[in-house]
Specification:
The radius of gyration is 21 Å and the shape is globular. The protein contains 15 helices and 13 strands. By secondary structure, it is an alpha/beta fold. The protein has helices spanning 43-52, 59-62, 95-101, 120-133, 146-157, 173-181, 193-207, 217-233, 250-264, 284-290, 318-327, 337-349, 356-370, 392-399, 426-432, and strands at residues 3-7, 15-17, 32-36, 91-93, 107-110, 138-142, 161-167, 185-189, 210-211, 241-245, 273-279, 331-335, 380-384. Helix 6 (173-181) links the parallel strand 7 (161-167) and strand 8 (185-189). It binds ligand F0G.
C-alpha cells in the first residue's frame, strides 16, 4: 500500500513522501493529510478480520486504533507502535439524556474511557509511532490539557521526551497533573492557546522537536478510528447524526475523513451528518459557517468559556472542517455556558459523566431538536470527548452553586446536587434520610 502526504487544498494537492517532517504544504501553506493507494481486501473481508481481532491477545489487536490498521496504513510495519490499549471505548445508551435532548434515543460514544481519559489517545498512539519511525527524540505540543496529558503518557511510554506548552492558568487541574505525573517538561506560557500555537509551530521546527498538535496528519489518522470502531460496534449501521464538540477542529476533520473513506471503500453506504457544537464565547467556526463566505475565518481574539478544552479562537483545521461539515450536509451550533453546565449535570445523572467540553454535545442536541433541525426519532451518536475527572473544580463549583461564567455571571445550578454536612449522629442522619 502506498502512503503519501498530500496538500488538502483542492487547487494544489501537491504530494510529499510520508517520511517528510512537514506540517503544512511547502508549496502553498495548506493543511496536509495522509493519502493511500487502493485497499487490497474487500470491505467484507476487512469487517471480518477486524471482528476476529477482538478475540486476540496481541497488543496491536487489543488496541481500538491498531485493530483497524488497514484503515490507517501509513507505517510499513508495526515496529514503532506503542499502545496503551487506547480506543475500545463503549457506546452507552442514555435514556435520561435522550429525554433532556428531546430525542427518543441517544447513544454516547465515550472517549473518556481511554487510557489518559480523552479521545486524544486515539491520535497520539499514531503521532508517537510516526515520531519513532522518523527517529525523533523530543516531541512537543501546545494544549488546552488533553493533548498534553496524552502526549506525555505516550511519549514517555515510547522513551521520547515530551515538551508541553500550556496556557497558564487556563487548563483543568486533572489534565495538568497528568502532564507532571507522566514526566513531561511542562511550560506554562502567559498567553492563550492560539498565541502559543503560533509561537510553537515555528519554534518546534527551529529546535528540531516533532510537533504533535492536531495539525500533525498522523494524529488525524488515529482519530479516524473512533468512527470506524463506532461503526464496527453498530454492526455497520450508519447513524443519522454524529455530534461532537469543536475546538481546534482536528476531530471534525478526522471524523469527516473517516466517514468519507469508509463510504468510498464500501464499508458504509451513506454519510451520517456531522453536528459540531462550539461554546458561544469561542465560536469562530460557528460564525464562519453562518456566513456566505466560507473561505476566510475571522478569529476570536479573546475566546472565553469554562469548557477550557475548547477555548480556542483560531482553530488550525478549519479548512478541513468546512469541507467535512459541508460534505456530510452537517451543521454547526453554539451553546451558552449555562446550557453546557446543565447538559453536563444531566450526563452525570445518567451515570455516565464527562468534562465540560463534551457536554456541549447534549446542549447542542437539545437546541437542534428544538429548532427542528434534528428529528426526535433520529438515530444519534454523540461523542463524549473527555472523562468527568478531568475538571473536578468545575463539577464541585456547579453542584455547590458557586460556578461563575467568564463574564462574571452566576451559573444557576439547575441540576445541582450539593453534599450535606451532618454530625456523627445516627438519629439525625436517619431523620435526614426521611425515617
Ligand atoms: N473535547 C475535549 C475534551 C478536548 O480536549 C478538545 C480539544 C475538544 C473537545 C475539541 O477537539 O480540537 O479536535 O476540535 N482539546 C485540544 C487539547 C485542543 O489541546 O487538548 P478539536
Amino acid at each position: 500500500m502506498t502512503a503519501e502526504l498530500a496538500c488538502f487544498e483542492e487547487r494544489c494537492r501537491a504530494r510529499f513522501p510520508i517520511t517528510e517532517v512537514i506540517y503544512n504544504c511547502p508549496r502553498c501553506g495548506g493543511l496536509l493529510e495522509a493519502v493511500y493507494g487502493d485497499h487490497e481486501a474487500s470491505p467484507e473481508a476487512l469487517k471480518k478480520r477486524w471482528r476476529e481481532r477482538r478475540l486476540s491477545n496481541d497488543p496491536l489487536d487489543q488496541s481500538g486504533v491498531w485493530r483497524y490498521r488497514e484503515f490507517i496504513p501509513f507505517l510499513p510495519d508495526a515496529s514503532p507502535v506503542v499502545t496503551l490499549r487506547e480506543g475500545c471505548t463503549p457506546l452507552l445508551d442514555a435514556p435520561l439524556a435522550a429525554r433532556y435532548g428531546g430525542l427518543r434515543r441517544l447513544v454516547f460514544k465515550h472517549q473518556g474511557f481511554n487510557p489518559t481519559g480523552s479521545f486524544k489517545d486515539n491520535g497520539m498512539t499514531c503521532g508517537v509511532a510516526q515520531a519513532l519511525r522518523l527517529g525523533m527524540q523530543r516531541v512537543a505540543c501546545v494544549s488546552t490539557g488533553n493533548t498534553s496529558a496524552s502526549m506525555a503518557a505516550y511519549a514517555s511510554a515510547a522513551g521520547l521526551q515530551p515538551v508541553i506548552f500550556l496556557p497558564h492558568g487556563n487548563i483543568a487541574h486533572g489534565k495538568l497533573v497528568q502532564a507532571l505525573e507522566y514526566g513531561a517538561r511542562t511550560l506554562q506560557v502567559e498567553a492563550n492557546f492560539d498565541q502559543i500555537l503560533a509561537l510553537v509551530r515555528h519554534l518546534a521546527e527551529r529546535l528540531g522537536i516533532y510537533l504533535l498538535n492536531s495539525i500533525n496528519p498522523f494524529r488525524i489518522e488515529g482519530q479516524k478510528t473512533i468512527m470506524v470502531e463506532m461503526m464496527d460496534q453498530r454492526d455497520w449501521r450508519e447513524p443519522d447524526w454524529v455530534v461532537l464538540p469543536g475546538g481546534n477542529l482536528g476531530n471534525t476533520s478526522a471524523f469527516g475523513k473517516a466517514l468519507r473513506e469508509m463510504r468510498d471503500i464500501g464499508l458504509i453506504g451513506r454519510l451520517p451528518r456531522l453536528a459540531v457544537i462550539q461554546a458561544a464565547g469561542s465560536a469562530p467556526f460557528y460564525e464562519l459557517m453562518q456566513g456566505a463566505d466560507r473561505t476566510r475565518l475571522s478569529k476570536v481574539e479573546d475566546p472565553e468559556t469554562l469548557a477550557t478544552a475548547i477555548k480556542i479562537g483560531d482553530p488550525v483545521s478549519w479548512p478541513k472542517a468546512v469541507y467535512e461539515v459541508t460534505a456530510s450536509a452537517g451543521v454547526v451550533e453554539r451553546v451558552t455556558e449555562q446550557e453546557i453546565a446543565d447538559a453536563k449535570a444531566i450526563i452525570g445523572q445518567s451515570g455516565i459523566g464527562c468534562e465540560p467540553a463534551s457536554a456541549a454535545t447534549l446542549a447542542g442536541i437539545r437546541k437542534l431538536v428544538a429548532a427542528g433541525t434534528m428529528d426526535q426519532n433520529a438515530d444519534v451518536v454523540a461523542v463524549l470527548t473527555g472523562n468527568v475527572l478531568k475538571d473536578p473544580d468545575y463539577v464541585y463549583r456547579y453542584h455547590t452553586g458557586v460556578l461563575e461564567a467568564p463574564d462574571g455571571s452566576q451559573i444557576v445550578a439547575n441540576h445541582g446536587n450539593p453534599p450535606t454536612v451532618v454530625p456523627c449522629d445516627g438519629e439525625q442522619i436517619a431523620r435526614l434520610l426521611g425515617h
